[in-house]
Design a protein that fits this description.
By secondary structure, the chain is α+β, with helices and mostly antiparallel strands. It has 5 helices and 4 strands. 28% of the residues are buried. Keywords: 2Fe-2S, Iron, Iron-sulfur, Metal-binding, Redox-active center.
Length: 115
Amino acid sequence: MSTEDTNTRIKNEIESSDVVLFMKGTPQAPQCGFSMQVVQILNHLGVPYKAINVLADGEIRDGIKAYSSWPTIPQLYVKNEFIGGCDIAKEMFQSGELVALLDKEGVPRAQASKA
């Protein structure tokens, strides 16, 4: 498959859901600690998201890095916009920026407890 075809597939995946996570493994069985941390953040916030297992598709695994110009997986997208990897998602979660962004973009989420 050409780079163009792979980019089209990636773009279609990103546009198919408000929140898309390119990760190693699945939300039920993450295959790396960084992917697991982002899954835990999204699950904690009660955000519906689409997870794409890059380990199941080598073209997507290599293609997403070129697509975003970001060298690592996981990669988090909100409303078609690249947010970042694990460290950025974690920092944004801890500072409250991630919740603010989700709310600003109108992404539905379960109300997390204040505990």
